[in-house]
Amino acid sequence: MQLAGAAIALTAGCSSVPVQTEAAKPPEAPRPGYATLHVGRPTGFNVSIFPITIDIDGKTVASLAPGRYITVELAPGKHVMEVPNNAWSRAINGIPHQVEFTTTAGKTYYALPTDWYSGSTQRVTMVGSAVVVDRVADHQTAFAVQEAAAPPAEFASLSHTPSP
After folding, report:
1. How many structural domains does the chain have?
2. Does the pLDDT at position 14 exceed 80?
3. Does the residue 155 lie in any domain?
4. Which residue from 121, 120, 114 is spatially nearest to 99, judged by alpha carbons?
5. SS3 (DSSP) at 130
6. Distance between CA atoms of residues 34 and 125, nearest Å
7. Residue 5 lies in a domain
8. In CATH, what number is assigned to the domain containing residue 28?
9. Global confidence as pTM
10. Sign of the CA dihedral 49, 51, 52, 56?
11. Per-residue confidence at 164, pLDDT binned at 50, 70, 90?
C-alpha cells in the first residue's frame, strides 16, 4: 500500500498543468509618451550565478540576478544599455559591450543577453611530461534588444524584479 501511495505522489509531481507566470502574461501598454523595456537574464550553463549591474544611459537601473527580469520605462529616442566594464564584470560575465537602441513611444522592447567568442588560439601546457593542447578565446557579451508585442519564449521562465 505504501508503494502505491509513493507512485501516486511521484506521478502527481509529473503532471503538466500550465503555470501562468507574470512573464507569460501579455505586457501592459507603456504609459503615454513612454516605451517599456524588459531586460531578462535567463539561466543557463554559460550564465554566472552572480547578479550583474545593468546601466541605461549611464545610470544604474538594477542588479540583475539569473532567472530574473526588470522593467524600465524610457522616453522615446536613442539609448545605451551596458554592463559596466570592470574586473568583476569581466570575471563573471565576459567582456561586456554596450548596445545602442532607439525606442518609440507606446512600444514594448525586450532585451536578452547574447555572447560570442573572439581571438581563438591554441595554448600548449606541460603537465608533468604530458603535453596538453587546448583552445582559448575571449568571451564577449552584450544584450540584444528587439521590439515585440509579446515576450520572447525565454521570458516565460523568468521572475520579475522590481526596479529601484
Report:
1. 1
2. no
3. yes
4. 114
5. strand
6. 55
7. no
8. 2.60.40
9. 0.75
10. positive
11. low
